[in-house]
Amino acid sequence: MITLQQRAIAHFDLDCFFVSVECLHDSQLKGKPLLIGGSSDRAVVAACSYEARRYGIHSAMPMKTALRLCPHAIVRSGDMDRYSEKSREVTSIIADKAPLYEKSSIDEFYLDLSGMDKFFGSLKWTSELRKAIIKESGLPISFGLASNKLVSKVATDEAKPNGQLEIPFGAEKNFLAPMPIEKIPMVGKETAAQLRRRGVETVKILSEVPPSLLEAWMGKNGISLWRKANGIDDSPVVPYYEQKSISTESTFPADTIDMEFLHAELVRMTEKIAFELRQQNKLTGCVTVKIRYSDFETVTKQMTIPYSCSDHVLLEKVKDLFKKLYDRRLLVRLIGVRFSHLVQGNYQINLFDDSQEMISLYQAIDHIKNRFGWDMLLKGTNVVPPDKRKYPAPKKDIMPYYKG
């Protein structure tokens, strides 16, 4: 029987994914400082090449600041359609070959290869998969191979760019020990600052702090930090096909063909589950709209979309689907919206043409919704709070065919 400590977990990460896709599309961009994002003074950097990073540029930096640091940098607006297509291409390659994999973000994957040493050798098999991905997709990719997800992810970061690194079983703690505490996943600036003020600067020192003391300093996260510092992580690889969708639907007290009301409901439902996406730090790659008519016939229509969790992007897709789907002159009994093909990620990555103000707006909206409830801040499209919502009475005459 394979124990958790004997697992073989590979972490794959497409190097500078957005940049690599742009360079694949235009080879003249290779080796040059490249910034992905909007070109206005208020835009932010969504991604940057290694050449640009040498000038101190990093993602989420104002584009204006980045161009001051590197005036000769090339700026490209993001193309989420292209990035999503390449992400799905790599996913397909991995799905065809891996026994068990988890798509943890648009450009990251975990593979559980436990037991494969008996047949092929985990390192040999993983190396061959990496070569296949590079050959078939044209994109550089790195991987780390270790006994758990935490160490394999850190190993991938050390293997970049376009490399691979195996951490043998039993060597996890020694591998992490000399690294600065910021190398531990989920240790952000604030946590790192708190630890450094207490003299904890390396993973080795962090691993030697008594768990009870870390808990006193950091609360329940202190125990998690101690486990990570000691290379302990028993979290499973979650099969990608088991990734759940997020959906909502509404059955009306009275069947209706009031288009203004139906559109308002679509807006309300889309905002509700888009907020849930952001709460879970996820993006959706597929939108489905559902209609049930008064005669109980149920129809659905879906579309694959560039990965997103932004209201204004998803609302456009939902409305377009509804327009194409509603093709009968019948009263509507129920409508629903579902987001599927979920991956980890945040809304900043597809706001290529949006400003810092747009990002700040989403953060402010979600802060208010977190505090007072998702339905306390809605778009002004005839949407009212649930306790005051009045559903339309059924109409006797049938509305002419809906043209949008």
Structural class of the helices, strands and pairings? alpha+beta
Taken from the alpha-carbon principal axes, the silhouette is globular
- The CATH level-2 architecture of the largest domain is identified as 2-Layer Sandwich
How many strand elements? Answer: 13
For the largest beta sheet, what order do the strands appear in spatially? Answer: 5-6-1-7-8
What's the domain count?
3
SSE order, one letter for each helix or strand? EHEEHHEHEEHEHEHHHHHEHEEHEEH
Largest sheet: 5 strands, mixed
CATH homology group of the largest domain: Reverse transcriptase/Diguanylate cyclase domain
- Please give the count of helices: 14
Mean pLDDT value: 86
Taking all Cα atoms into account, the compactness measure Rg is: 24 Å
GO molecular function, one term: DNA-directed DNA polymerase activity
Keywords: Cytoplasm, DNA damage, DNA repair, DNA replication, DNA-binding, DNA-directed DNA polymerase, Magnesium, Metal-binding, Mutator protein, Nucleotidyltransferase, Transferase
Main location: cytoplasm
Subunit structure: Monomer.
Account of the protein in words:
InterPro entries: DNA/RNA_pol_sf (IPR043502), DNA_pol_Y-fam_lit_finger_sf (IPR036775), DNA_pol_Y-fam_little_finger (IPR017961), DNA_polymerase-Y (IPR050116), DNApol_IV (IPR022880), PolY_HhH_motif (IPR024728), Rev_trsase/Diguanyl_cyclase (IPR043128), UmuC (IPR001126). Residues 9-188 form the UmuC domain. It catalyses: DNA(n) + a 2'-deoxyribonucleoside 5'-triphosphate = DNA(n+1) + diphosphate. The protein has helices at 17-25, 50-53, 63-69, 80-97, 122-137, 149-159, 172-176, 189-197, 203-208, 211-218, 221-229, 259-279, 311-325, 356-372, and strands at residues 9-14, 34-37, 45-48, 74-76, 101-105, 108-112, 141-146, 164-166, 246-256, 282-293, 298-308, 332-340, 343-344. α4 (80-97) packs antiparallel against α5 (122-137). It is built from 14 helices and 13 strands. The strands form three sheets. The chain has a five-stranded mixed sheet with strand order 5-6-1-7-8. The longest helix has 21 residues, at 259-279. With 404 residues, the chain is of the alpha+beta class. The model is unreliable at 1-5 and 382-404 (pLDDT under 50). It folds into three domains: 1-169, 2-Layer Sandwich (Alpha-Beta Plaits), CATH 3.30.70.270; 171-234, DNA polymerase, domain 1, CATH 1.10.150.20; 242-388, DNA polymerase, Y-family, little finger domain (Dna Ligase, domain 1). Helices cover 38% and strands 20% of the residues.
